[in-house]
Amino acid sequence: MDEGSDHPGGPGSGGAPGPGGPGSGGAEGPPPKRWRALLRDGPAFGPTRPGFWRSPVRGRWTTSVLGAVLLVGLTVVTVTGLLSYAAYNPDLTPVNDKTPDKGLLGFYLFPWPTDPHWLYRLTQGLHVTLGIVLVPVLLAKLWSVAPLFFTWPPVRSVAHALERVSLLLLVGGALFVFATGVLNVQLEYVFPGSFYVLHFYGSWVFLAGLAVHLGTKVPVMVRTLRAGPADAPVPGPGRPAGADLGEPPGLRTPNPAPATLSRGGVLGLVGLGSLTLFAVTVGQSIGGPLRATALLAPRGRASGEGPNDFPVNTTASRAGVGAGETGEDWRLTVRGGGREAVLTRQELLALPQHRAALPIACVEGWSTRDQEWSGVRLSDLADLVGAAAPVWVLVESVQRTGSFTSAGLHAGQVADPRSLLALRVNGADLSLDHGYPARVIVPAAPGVHNTKWVGRLTFEDA
Amino acid sequence: MGALRRWYGAPVSHLLLMAGSFALAAYAGVRLLGGDPVGVAVWFVGAVVLHDLVLVPAYTLADRGWQAVAGLLVGAGRGGHGGARARGTRGTRGEHGDRARIRLVNHVRVPAVLSALLFAVYFPLILGPSDAYLSKSGLPGHPFAGRWLLLCALLFAASAVVGAVRYARGAVADRSG
Predict the structure, then answer these.
(1) The pairing of beta strand A371-377 with beta strand A354-358
(2) For chain B, what is the largest distance between any 2 Cα atoms, rounded to a whole number of angstroms?
(3) Would the CB atoms of B15 and A317 count as touching at under 8 Å?
(4) Which of A15, A312, A394, A449 stands 20 to 30 A from A112 (CA)?
């Protein structure tokens, strides 16, 4: 909707009388006339009156700048989000697929690459950090258009009614997707269902609303930004904004309060908010000494200096894995090509050992720097049972409870020489929390696909 | 075509865009609502209601309330010349009062907004991490409330220092001018 441009209420309703002047003369007439006036002009006071909204900083320029920032930022967040969905290789095997009903929404899926090995660190770090950084921009954008939520009459035409419904998808979708994401990275699982289901389908509902919003608003935004702020004089501190001849009523208040912040000041405050959130968050995705700078991020806390002192997604105690499952009696079963091999940890250590420097990168956005893993190549284990490439592998943990107790890795991931069944890290045996006796580590794979406490590998023809 | 446009209220391309959008929203929405339809609907609509009817009015009222208090404080600080602040009296003293009030407003407003934003994003950790956080991460204790309060204190202190420097500079400029 081109706000206010087709306002039908005549001069009495759009041009908003000041407080105490409810406008059109109908108010004093006999009851039917009064009712008609109420229908046309809305309640005499309250948020449906343009004069109710008094910030002189609202206007097309402010909204357009915030909209442009969101357009760029949300594009990156959306693309990295869709990439993260693909990174799980949901089409490979049902255990990888948290959204089996996705249907057409999985149209773009592709086998997730193993190069560069920090790919998921980058895409998911961007997704989560940028999402958090955009929170102030989203809230400011909603603030800047708040008068339109209460616009009167609530519905002007069929087209307007549909737009208002799509606005619910847009605003509800944005808040829903941001809320589920922000809560999930803090492991606050209060939302009604599986995070993957809610965040993925919720995003598509949001994108549906966004498509309409972009289709109808981008031309206005581009026009406004092209014209520049000079088109509408900036109200300075202490001075009320002058009448803005270039802008129809809607965003710009007809009853401005004296300004206490300029438009630049408001945009600067939003930027400062984003910067502050960035400063207390990004360290958890950089790791090393900078991790401790992420003062409020869930994984901003420094671990010790030992070889196993880097963050853990799920501890052994949480996973219900103890000495019983991982002690002397632990065996690795390898199946494939119609054969089966059962190996002890000693037997695995006797196989050719290879090294790989790879990070752990979590869907929650945090990651570690490269760790020095060593162990047996997945492709060597496939050879051991005579499973000829190309093969994909189903990795099963001895972990009984929790999500991602098993994961499928596609043929490209199995074939990569850096994909290991790791036995040691940074020169020491794996700690129990990092997956002792053996865990998978694959370049660029999401953290939960690097299965810990592995009990069985099943290679299947790709 | 013209009749359709008049009835609909926008060009036909608008109607096509709407149809495509609602088709996608319905396709994804059915799947979104598949598990716990009532819970998801409450969250989806509740987020809008909470934002538009609680959050926006709450921070607006807080801001307007603070502006009123700041006006009183500046008025009182000027020994009864508060009347000069009023709009319309554009004397030197009035402009100074306005500027002092706006500075006071913003030097509290900015750190308050930043502190509120940090809380809005990280309140689950600040209010005490979930059992899932403690058991999954294995990280002991919860330092987040203390860290947030510390950050709030730093933000307000930094704003106060900047404000004091500006005030001192303004006073010097007044005397030399």
Answers:
(1) antiparallel
(2) 73
(3) no
(4) A312
The torsion angle over the Cα atoms of residues A370, A77, A180 and A112, rounded to 10 degrees, is -50
A85 contacts A108 by C-beta, under 8 angstroms:
no
A311: number of CA atoms within 13 Å, CB side?
30
Superfamily of A316-461 according to CATH: Oxidoreductase, molybdopterin-binding domain (3.90.420.10)
Q: Report yes or no: B143 at the A interface, CB cutoff 8 Å.
A: yes
Chain A touched by B129 (CB under 8 Å):
yes
Residues 6+ apart with CB under 8 A from A438: A332, A345, A348, A375, A421, A422, A423, A430, A453, A454
Nearest CA in chain B to A162: B18
A188: which chain B residues are within 8 Å (Cβ-Cβ)? 124, 130, 132-133
Beta-carbon separation of A296 and B137 below 8 A = no
Which candidate from B29, B117, B125 shows the least CB-CB separation from A135?
A: B117
Q: What is the pLDDT of residues A201-225, one digit of tens each?
A: 999 999 999 999 999 999 999 999 9
DSSP per residue, A20-79: T---SGGGGS-HHHHHHHHHHH--SSSTTSGGG---TT-SHHHHHHHHHHHHHHHHHHHH
Tokens of B63: 């801001």
- Which residues in B lie closer than 8 A to residue A103 (C-beta atoms)? 27, 31
How large is the average pLDDT for residues A53-65? 93
Tell me the mean pLDDT in the region A70-76.
Answer: 98
For residue A258, what is the nearest residue in chain B, using CA coordinates? B87
Question: Is A93 in a helix, a strand, or coil?
Answer: coil
Give whole-number Cα distances, B174 to B11, B31, B129, B171, in Å: 60, 66, 52, 5
Domain ranges of chain B: 50-176
Helix pair A135-144, A158-185: axis angle to 10 deg: 150
In whole angstroms, what is the distance from residue B145 CA to residue B126 CA? 4
Q: Give the best residue of A48, A105, A145, A162 to mutate against chain B (max B CB count within 10 A).
A: A162
Whether the CB of B48 is below 8 Å from some CB of chain A: the reply is: yes
Taking phi over 0 as left and psi of -120 to 50 as alpha, with beta for the rest, A419 belongs to: beta
Instruction: Give the integer Cα–Cα distance in Å for A196 and A98.
Output: 6
pLDDT in tens, A307-352: 999 999 999 999 999 989 999 999 999 999 899 999 999 999 999 9
Element spanning A149, H or E: helix A146-149
Please report, for chain A, the start and end positions of each structural domain, with discontinuous segments joined by +. Answer: 52-279, 316-461
Question: Chains A, B: CB contacts under 8 A, how many?
Answer: 209
For an interface test with B, which of A82, A99, A187 has the most B Cβ atoms less than 10 Å from its Cβ? A187
Q: Does B121 touch chain A (CB under 8 A)?
A: yes
User: Cβ contacts (< 8 Å) between A186 and chain B: which residues?
Assistant: 122, 124-125, 129-130, 133
B31–A contact, CB cutoff 8 A: yes
pLDDT reported for residue A337: 87
Residue B135 exposed, middle or buried by CB count within 10 Å (0-12, 13-18, 19+):
middle
Distance CA B96, CA B9 (A): 51
Strand spans (E) along A192-304: none
- The first and second tokens of residue B112, run together, are 């308050």
Averaged pLDDT, A111-127: 98
